[in-house]
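User: I'm preparing a small set of examples for a lab meeting where we compare how different chains pack in three dimensions. I only have the primary sequence for this one, and I'd like the structure in token form so I can line it up with the others. Please keep the answer compact; I'll paste it straight into my notes.
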Amino acid sequence: SSSSSSEDTIHLQLLFSYYASSMEIHDGFCFDYSMDDGTSWHSERCWHAVQDFENGMWYDDVGVSFSLNKDHTRIVEKDNQGKLDAFRIRFRCRADSRKDDVLIDKVQLLGLRDGGAELKDSI
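Assistant: Understood. Below is the structure token output for the 123-residue chain.
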């Protein structure tokens, strides 16, 4: 184990299900997050039609793991639970027609911080 611990990092995992309809080869969707209440956004992962998914199928329990630097994240302690303050997520459709759709369902955000203390936040 290295001398630099994971105490400076918050590890998160986003789990969700999705269904795409009428998405063509240049269409897709992205998962973004903000650490400043939505003033600025970071694009964490994008999925592209044909390459990453097919239309007309449900994809369940899709996972995206990512980390946040604790120095850039406000954590508020309330009732002995860590809450991420000003953290927001969004799904963004990248399509060229109003008929292109991605349905998102069963969204969960799971996380650990400082030696494994669980973050419990609802979205």
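A couple of notes for your slides: The longest strand covers residues 9-21. Residues 1-6 have pLDDT under 50 and may be disordered.

User: Perfect, thanks.
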